[in-house]
Amino acid sequence: MHELSQLKVYKFGGASVKDAAAIRNLGRIVAEHGRPGPLVVVVSAMGKTTNALEALLQLAHTGQPYATELGALSSFHAAVATELGLPAAELLRELLGELESRLVAAANVAPSGLDQHYDQVVSFGELLATRIVAAFLRARWLDCRPLIRTDETWREGRLDWSATEAALQAALPLAELTQGPPVVTQGFIGGTAGGLTTTLGREGSDFTAAILAYCLGAESVTIWKDVAGLLNADPKIFPDTVRYPEISYQETIEMAYYGASVIHPKTIKPLAVRGIPLLVKSFLAPTAEGTRIHDCRHGLLVPALIRKTDQCLVSFESKELDFISEENLEVIFGVLAQVRLKIRLMQNSAISFSVCLDFLPDRLEQLLARLRGQFTIHYNTGLELYTIKNYDTASLQRLTAGRELLLEQRTRQTFQFVCRAG
Ligand SMILES: Nc1ncnc2c1ncn2[C@@H]1O[C@H](COP(=O)(O)OP(=O)(O)O)[C@@H](O)[C@H]1O
Ligand SMILES: N[C@@H](CC(=O)OP(=O)(O)O)C(=O)O
Question: How far is the C-alpha of 234 from the C-alpha of 223, rounded, in Å?
């Protein structure tokens, strides 16, 4: 490993590169806060480009016309590049051509190969965005795919930490980082040993920043967001939020796990392992304090309120009133893992076992198909999962008032319940 260095890793997500003005603002932040000194800048796809690419792939795969949507995506990127004074055609032609070829090929992809093809297509959001940002900053554009090495778990590549660490250290020696221009690279994407592109899971660019910091021994990671820092709730859902000036890795990892979408859940562990602080700062007020996530002790925190939408509650009943046994649970857990459904909450009773899951219709259908023979299965969709971390009476009353709780669970620190959306 590099000695802990002066290296900073900055991560800019979709909102902070959503248009030319946003990229100019990014340029000011890099100049005024990131330099001088070695700097790696991780960039996500611009605005909602990843969603647009998902929709394009769906159209192409199902044989529907997509020229209008592809044209919109291309001209959006070209217009931003031009507005920034960059030679748009020269900068983007090759990538846009590759994207088009991938979309043409999508029509012939078998359903079983779709997840693999998804990664080959959806990764273009980050490739295009970094081309523009790197050119604007006059930085070194780095293709991270040969360096961020994963297995072939498409759409959620699992990292090969030792291969990634070796590759990153070889590609980015500290002396070069110190003397050279900043490096701009893609969040969210990686590559297999065989040279195919993978993605790390939606919203995975924060994780990329943590991977780079861990492997290169950075002094800090800063994720630049459209909020003042890590708040006790999503301000888009709850109007009266408060900011945590500092908070421990452990509290943050739990908030992210329960669904606080401001930080990808995988981000914290690599940073905690190497004691690298994570700063959450506002790109709208870059000099403001933000939140420092590090190894710290603090008193009781303001309760954190977290909502996860699009949940479903699935209950498995043994046939003929048998008790739910450990053998039954082994089967259920096994199939959940195979179809890659994550349990958000679970509860057992004599003859029934219930799990709250993200509602992913294709995966749920696979789950039902594999377990229907053995269990009677009921499920409800259109649900929400609420978590109150460090709850008190007031926060508990506030969130549960007027709601029918379909499932609830409480530990000393955490209260969770499932209810209907709305
Ligand atoms: N606890 C929280 N604190 C701050 N923001 C939160 C929290 N929970 C959810 N959010 C949401 O996270 C958003 C920022 O994260 P995200 O949209 O992933 O940014 P980006 O894609 O630009 O990296 C905020 O606009 C806010 O709505
Ligand atoms: N662009 C990817 C990865 C990502 O992390 O984006 P953002 O940083 O904007 O959340 C996505 O939308 O999933």
Answer: 16
